[in-house]
Amino acid sequence: MNSISQLPDDIICKILSLLSLKEAVQTSVLSTRWRHLSLWLPSLDLNTRDFSDFNTFKSFGDRFFDSARVSCVHELKLSLGRVARNVDDESCFTSWINAAIKRKIQYLHFTGEFNLPWLLFSCETLVSLSLFDVTLDDAVSVVLPCLKTMHLDEIVYRSEATLETLISSCPVLENLEIVLSDADSGLFRVQSRSLKSFTIFRDKFIVLAASPGVVIDAPLLCYLSISDVVSESFTVNNLESSCNLDILLYFGLYAYALEIRGVSSRKSEIRKFLLGISRAGTMKICVHTCKIICRYSELEPLPQFCFMSRLCVPLWSANLRWLEQERLHELLYEEMDEISFSSVPECLVSSLEFVDFDFSLWGYCVEMELVKYFLKNSAVLKKLTLRLGSHSTRDETLKELLEIPRASTSCEVDVL
């Protein structure tokens, strides 16, 4: 312990920051020199549940953010639990955040039913911002020149323009995650010239009102993850071929509405979405979304996915009509020697390099015909992955695969 005590204060504070707040405070009994070091930590995780009552929590926070402190606050995690919900005077929270801003805070994680001071959204040093269960009012001015990562979870937005203003005021924002709440029924716009990764999640089946949807305009996106069972429309503009898509999208249609009539009512919205993502290079699509696309393909032709290099679709082969450009009937249990397709999608000829059949093959003829279709027509295919069901015979399947002619001589077939 003597050797540690001989270290400079800033080094000891970094060591203490690796401990929980309770453990860091307990070190004050080690020596008189350590008595106040926990108040100089560069990183602080301050949670009401770690204190016996609110007054103790507030007292520690006031001492930590006392104006006499001159050190920087690198990271602050501030979580206000149930104890803080009944507090009439929330000014202490505002003063703490303002003090952190003055001390050049870079990482802020805030949880609690609280109206954040808009001074926070003019912080010149903030690099990462995570907010949960807070209320955002409209602001006159928002400037976050260094913010690269933002996570917004169950936020209450005073208007549709609140989120749009916040995002567009972050000139170097690269990573954005949004979890929308049940009460969010407006049209959300995400416009960014710097955004590279965007995840949006709205997976609540019980909603207060129908949602008109989301509009994304972010030309530098490399990764887009959509999990949205509520929005009736979802528009993606200016998407480049380098983007990796992960899609769970219902267009407001649930299982009972997947008949032609239901999909027809969303035909315009589905068309707009498919055109917007048609330049994507990699796609993973959930079962429900793929079924909607299959139904849509019975109404209108699909766009050609000319840049697609990797595809993962987790469903039965008989539902892959949208790739075939021609309807397959209920063939899963029928014996047949060949499936005829009216055309070969451009992506198979020019760009598709990886195909992952994310379902188990059970030895039905139509399944092998679908595998043959990809092997025979995918000119640049590098790898095709298959999974065998319990009733499949591995040796027989491998023998049949070896006999299939391949358009790509370098294609590897991986049987799991």
UniProtKB/TrEMBL annotation:
It comes from Microthlaspi erraticum. It comes from the Eukaryota. CDD domains: F-box_AtFBL13-like. SMART domains: FBD, FBOX. This is F-box domain-containing protein. Pfam families: F-box, FBD, LRR_At5g56370. PROSITE patterns: FBOX (PS50181). Residues 1-37 form the F-box domain. InterPro entries: F-box-like_dom_sf, F-box_AtFBL13-like, F-box_dom, FBD, FBL13/AtMIF1-like, LRR_dom_sf, LRR_FXL15/At3g58940/PEG3-like.
